[in-house]
Amino acid sequence: xxxxxxxVHAINEKSxxxxxxxxxxxxxxxxxxxxxxxxxLVPYCDESLQKxxxxxxxxxxxxxxxLISAAEFRFPECRYINPVSVVRGDAFSPEGAIxxxxxAFVAKDLFDRSNTQYGILxxxxxxxxxxxxxxIANGFNTAFNDWQYENWIEKDSRYKMSMLxxxxxxxxxxxxxxxxxxxxGVVAVNLQTTTTxxxxxxxxxxxxxxxxxxxxxxxxxDSEASGENGPAQAVGPASTYMEWHTCLGFNAQRNIVSLVCxxxxxxxxxLKFVFxxxxxxxxxxxxxxxxxxxxxxxxxxxxxxxxxxxxxKRNVRLGTQPIEEPYRPKDLLEIIQMAGIEDMLLxxxxxxxxxxxxxxxxxxxxxxxLKNKIFYENALNTYHFTR
Length: 387
Fold this sequence. Notes:
Elements: H1 2-20, E1 26-33, H2 47-53, E2 61-63, E3 66-68, H3 103-114, E4 116-123, H4 134-153, E5 159-164, H5 170-180, E6 186-190, H6 204-212, E7 216-219, H7 241-246, H8 248-261, H9 264-267, E8 273-275, H10 283-297, H11 308-315, E9 316-319, H12 329-339, E10 345-346, H13 368-380
Parallel strand pairs: 1-4, 4-5, 5-6, 6-7, 7-8, 8-9, 9-10
Antiparallel strand pairs: 2-3
């Protein structure tokens, strides 16, 4: 079977390379999918979960002038509200579906227009990684994974999926990976939080299961400063969305250091962590600083057999959106080349969000070879699309 898959992959690569001569091929590592409402999950929930989520026949109804229902369910709420709207106004479907909720329209509006071969779905409905009721969180994740697979992955082979699990219940997370992770089209696991140090050993069963099924870890801003999580900023909570959004990269840097210093990549060498929407340029001083400290303090981390920066370059990937925009565009190219992180960068559109990067408008000052790495080759070498 592996030989057949390699042959199919080689045939696909040959045809893809031919097509690449005319237009840049794209693998998009951050496409957001939305529920129109929680009622979309009704077919995937038992009655107990429907009641706890207040959906289906348990949804609040009028009865003799009074409202009757189970207690209203709400997602953990973030402290910060985008003042200009999180979604783009031009991404509503012709039928009025909210941006990111209509698979057919997303395929037409994004994939067809951008020559996208694969787009990795990343839920934007769930902040359940920090939800205080683990049973509800696990039930929601299971229902959402089934809904997304049936309504997106099975409808268009270009859609690939990052599945949801809760880091607060590693045993349940492993069972969900065993249930869903072997399905074609599932390529990553989304922990839905970054305010738990990812080097913590209680998370190792999740990493072991993900590595076993050939899945990568996709990390995206989600539950910071909501639910069970405290403020994401080290010096205290931000006052505005602008502060929160600007400082997101620090969360990723903290977790990258945790992963390296706790030896996660020594224990799980095939596992990659893809940090999406945390920026790119901040990794450069981190590489220099962690290598410098390791040279003096390596006896604290004797399990590290090489420079920390080598683990990072091999096992960490960075989504390019929101890309930093220096006054001189070539400065970004120089810092990427200076640090040697060309193989770490994965193109992300962040569709349908307010600050998304269009494939035909970014990296215009980059060399063609580097653009092809960012848009296509690096993702192809990161995710297992032909498992």
